[in-house]
Amino acid sequence: MGYARKAALLAATMIASSLISNSVLLAETSATGAGITIVNKGLVAVGRIPAGQRDKFGETFGSGSGMAIDPTDWKKDADGYAGSLWLLPDRGYNVDGTTDYNSRINKIEIRLAPAAADQALSSDKQQAGVQAKLAETMLLTDDAGKNMTGLDPESGVRAAAAKMPAMPQASTGKVSLDPEAVIRLADGSLLISDEYGPYIYHFSIDGKLISATQPPKALLPMRKGRLDFSSNNPGPGGKVPDPKDPESGRQNNQGLEGMAMTPDGKFVIALLQSAPIQDGGDSSSTRMNTRALVYDASDIDNLKLVHEYVVPLPTFDNKGKVAVAAASEILALSDKAFLVLARDSNSGQGVKGDTSVYRKINLIDLTSATDIAGTDFDGLKPVASKGKVDETVKPAVLTSFIDINDAQELARFGLHNGAPNDRNNLSEKWEAMSIASALDASAPDDFFLFVANDNDFLTQDGFQVGNAYKAAGGADVDTMFQVFRVTLPGVAKK
């Protein structure tokens, strides 16, 4: 056999071997709670938006803090699926403190071509299953039409007026917003949850603030007996709060990270990222007992708190110490069950650590949990002092569902968790979830679960608030989508 023929045969064998390794059938995983069993049928697609993408204002695009797929234009065609989603960036590029980044939201046009579980994927197809294109960017404004800002509110408070409660305010006079989750309502208006407040804001279809919902006192950040929204991330020339941490309420940068509406549209559920200060939130090892707030959504501009529960966050071993996987997003299945995306920190592309220990989507069952809404625990009485839940209170139940760090799943799509810390190593912050129907008559309870990262605006070609920048460490962190096919009984709208 000639050399050229041998080389061609060897190359063909290597390609075939690679395709076989990429077509290994993966076992389904499931979780049971609140009277239902949900099933993960596996990762079916991956796609990216480049780190250097700019929006229509010429500023660096950064998204994945929150996501809402529009079900009204989700369609299936000969090439797969097509539709749009709203992707929420957080408060802007803020490695060296916060900036006067105008709060905004992005509309993304999506095409999805999911891979079958036994489909062999060549390298050029591994991350082409999701095609995402930035279609529109809309600025968010306060009730007077003034742009909102990512600047830390330091110790600023805009006084309550008319129907608006006291709100976080930057030294510029703008309302400070650190947006984390988004719900797109049927009329096109938006509910956005916030870290600074931590509040739930209702914005009109054109991005103007309509109303604000203040949480129970137990979650409001207090310093020296006063409301103080600072997160200890002052802008240029700004002042550090005294004391650095709140003395009660949400911890710095641990606000309403997750929010979702139940499929029937009757309730909004919001989840604090980790425990309030008085419930062990002052320590990284005792902050595992967070709170879920369930609101009656019959009047969006007057959300009424009807239930409140203690939700246990996952813990894991971090070099011999107990660590807590903080909540990054939720997806409501009913008023008694939701998915929660929880993760560790400081590991992944764009940061120094390379290997994540914990990134999972879990099922939360509220069925038998104690409802603490309207009790003394809504004031300053701790419900989990030093991380130990009060003996009169039963927390929700958490069950593992999807492991985002699953090595076999990631490898099939050319991704990995850990070294080398390159563009195919998952980035640190996975913070967005939303679902779209599989539109499969033979499996009406099947959905595509979209999960996206918050890339923190990390790029080597950045431009924001009038200044060019390069992220430290040389990383270009793309906005990435992972899509899982899942079975969620009872979620499909009738």
TrEMBL record:
Name assigned to this protein: Phytase-like domain-containing protein
Q: Where is this region: Disordered?
A: 224-258
Highest taxon of the lineage: Bacteria
Record domain Phytase-like: where: 61-457
- Would the keyword Disulfide bond turn up in this protein's UniProt record? no
Q: Name one Pfam family in it.
A: Phytase-like
Asked if the keyword Transcription regulation belongs to this entry, the reply reads no
Q: Which UniProt keywords apply?
A: Signal
Q: Where is the signal peptide?
A: 1-26
